[in-house]
């Protein structure tokens, strides 16, 4: 038995085939999960990597200085570096209290990001970020990373147990 295909139907067969191939291809490409953002842009990825590098270096330096030398706390050295970086317009960073009993009032979170970051650190988060649109159309990455009392010297000076939360580092870096 032969079927005769008449009218517009023969022209639709190749189109239907292309649609099926397209659907098969679309099904093979993973879609972001519900609530997940699409792939991040390269500039934001680079800026996150830059902040991670800065954070790792500052924390290694502070711990090494604390272990190696007696005298002024290593956090003072970090703050000196933060001031120089800000003056040169590289980035802005602050060492902030999350205990509620700062050793220096200058270490209290002041803006909405810092206050939210403090709450996140107290709740057990180790990383908190926000991408901010600037007035000139650019973007800044705000990041906070946890600072626990990692060595006994820190714990003793701050009157806490080793491992307890002291505060966090707050970074503000231009996305380029």
Report on this structure.
With 176 residues, the protein is of the alpha+beta class. The protein has one domain (42-174): Beta-Lactamase. Helix content is 45%, strand content 19%. It has five helices and four strands, in the order H-H-H-E-H-E-E-H-E. Helix 2 packs antiparallel against helix 3 (74-87). The model is unreliable at 1-36 (pLDDT under 50).
What's the total count of β strands?
4
**What shape does the CA trace take?**
globular
- Low-pLDDT stretches are 1-36
Number of domains: 1
Order of helices and strands: HHHEHEEHE
**SS content category:** alpha+beta
- CATH-scheme architecture: 2-Layer Sandwich
Strand content: 15-25%
| C-alpha-based Rg, rounded | 26 Å
- What distance separates the N and C termini? 68 Å
- Mind summarizing the main beta sheet? 4 strands, antiparallel
**CATH class group:** Alpha Beta
Describe the structure concisely for a colleague.
With 176 residues, this protein is of the alpha+beta class.
Please supply descriptive tags for the structure shown above:
four-stranded antiparallel β-sheet, alpha+beta, 4 strands, 176 residues, 19% strand, globular, Beta-Lactamase, single chain
């Amino acid at each position: 038995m032969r079927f005769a295909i008449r009218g517009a139907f023969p022209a639709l067969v190749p189109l239907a085939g292309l649609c099926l191939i397209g659907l098969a291809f679309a099904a093979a490409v993973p879609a972001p999960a519900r609530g997940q953002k699409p792939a991040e842009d390269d500039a934001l990825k680079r800026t996150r990597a830059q902040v991670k590098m800065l954070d790792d270096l500052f924390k290694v330096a502070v711990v090494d200085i604390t272990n190696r030398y007696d005298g002024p706390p290593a956090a003072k050295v970090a703050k000196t570096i933060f001031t120089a970086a800000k003056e040169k317009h590289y980035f802005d960073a602050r060492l902030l209290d999350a205990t509620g009993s700062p050793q220096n009032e200058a270490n209290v979170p002041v803006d909405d990001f810092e206050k939210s970051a403090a709450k996140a650190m107290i709740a057990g988060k180790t990383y908190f970020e926000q991408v901010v649109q600037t007035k000139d159309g650019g973007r800044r990455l705000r990041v906070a990373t946890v600072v626990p009392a990692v060595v006994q010297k820190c714990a003793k000076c701050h009157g806490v147990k080793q491992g307890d939360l002291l505060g966090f580092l707050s970074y503000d870096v231009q996305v380029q």
